[in-house]
Amino acid sequence: MPKKQRGYWLKLETQLNELNQLGTKLGYTKINDWYQVNGIHFKQNGLYRLLSIYGCSYYSLLKTLIPSYNWLPWLFVNTPYTIWNEVSTRIDYINWLFTVLNYNQIEDWYNITTQNFIDNKGEGILRIYNSSPIQLLQNLLPKYNWKFWLFKNKPYRCWESKENILCYLDWLKEKLNYTSMEDWYKVSTKDFEDNYGEGLLSRYKECRIKCLQDVYDYNWIPWNFRSVYKGFWNDIKNCKAYMDWLFNELNYTDIEDFYNLTGRTMEKYKGGCLLSKYNKSVYKILIACYPEVSWDKKLFSKVGYSDISNKWLSYINNELNISLQSKLTDEGEKCLISETRRYYVDGYINCIDEKQKTEILDKLESFCNIHNHSSSLEIVFEFYGDFWHGNINLYKKNKQVYKPTDINSFNKRTYQDLYNSTILRENELKSYYNVITIWENNWLTYSKTI
């Protein structure tokens, strides 16, 4: 190849002519074919001097010689890392990527992944920001209030920062329309799961209570939440804390005021699970929490439950000369465990044989509802308080006492819902046991005849 005259490469016209000839040799037919060019192409065709004039930058060369085309430096086969030194280039890139990914609004960036950058020539720019798309967006689009929990791929160990957790909880509080700290007592695991907080729950082993206790300096009352965490009531300190709290809530002034405490009251004050742990025996709870007190069992009001149901159970015991396990006995209510759940039943007996079982069922059939389970000798007794269980079939003076859509003033559920739950539970029990039930009004009517 003949030697070029001095100053040959300094003329733009000459440079463009040589570039066009190179394009023809390389078979380029479209202007964006130049993105495939590399240094070997220039060297093998005697044009390395031309490339060196532009610092061996294809981007600078083409931008100068073909200025009418919008050259994107990251699309070249060999893209020098130095192109990312200019912040303006980084911004140009993310604006281009926004279009390539068919994003329509800034929130679409929450779907971005590392792979999106790799697939679109963005490895270099991502490295500047520790391979974190979130850091990149926070730096290049700082005016937008980025919420890390909304990203498809959240930052590694993002939930280890209390500052991050607090930002998330403040956002969630607004999302759930909470206006006070007490509103957090309504929060559920599903509220976190539905609002990008699965990772946060996982950090606290699915315990939202511990999360809130850790972040907010507030005097939390654990039992006021929808549910406490697993094992909470296994710690006697928690049981004692609840009973101390209940003492103040009920305006008790002396420890012996607890003799007036009923199971219904404990349920009303969110102590139902604690009650169940001790077989619904207030007496047993108090012995465990205040062992220094000499409790007299006789002074309790039948461990706090309805005298009406107690009279029904006592009548059955006396009439049939049997001894049911119930809230009237030291063992407390029987806990029956099935494949799916536990049942605490009002009364229970495991008959010694089929004869005893038949005698019991036959004698009670005249005023109770009987279900005979042919393969079981166990009998369950259930008393349904009309108010508590939603007796929608109760009429007085031709008027329905508990209308299906009316709300129970104690538990805030409709009477239809209470009735449905009662029948569902009864049907579940019938799958395993002989079941004897009676509604409060039916017992009151029958008891007048004895």
Give a topology summary.
Layout: H1 12-25, H2 39-44, H3 48-53, H4 58-65, H5 87-100, H6 114-118, H7 123-128, H8 133-140, H9 162-175, H10 189-193, H11 198-203, H12 208-215, H13 236-249, H14 263-268, H15 272-277, H16 282-289, H17 307-320, E1 325-326, E2 334-337, E3 342-345, E4 347-350, H18 354-364, E5 369-371, E6 378-384, H19 386-389, E7 395-396, E8 399-400, H20 415-430, E9 434-439, H21 440-447
Parallel strand pairs: 6-9
Antiparallel strand pairs: 1-4, 2-3, 4-6, 5-9, 7-8
Helix pairs in contact: 13-16
The topology string of helices and strands comes to: HHHHHHHHHHHHHHHHHEEEEHEEHEEHEH
Question: What form results from the Cα inertia axes?
Answer: elongated
* Structure summary, number of beta strands: 9
**Could you list the spans in which at least 5 consecutive residues all have pLDDT below 50?**
none
Question: What is the helix content?
Answer: 40-55%
Measured on Cα atoms, how large is the radius of gyration? Answer: 39 Å
Widest sheet, order of strands: 1-4-6-9-5
Can you count the helices? 21
**What fraction of residues sit in β-strands?**
5-15%
State the separation between the terminal residues, measured CA to CA: 127 Å
Question: Could you say which structural class the secondary elements and strand pairing correspond to?
Answer: alpha+beta
Number of domains: 5
Instruction: Please summarize the sheet with the most strands.
Output: 5 strands, mixed
Give the averaged pLDDT, no decimals. Answer: 89
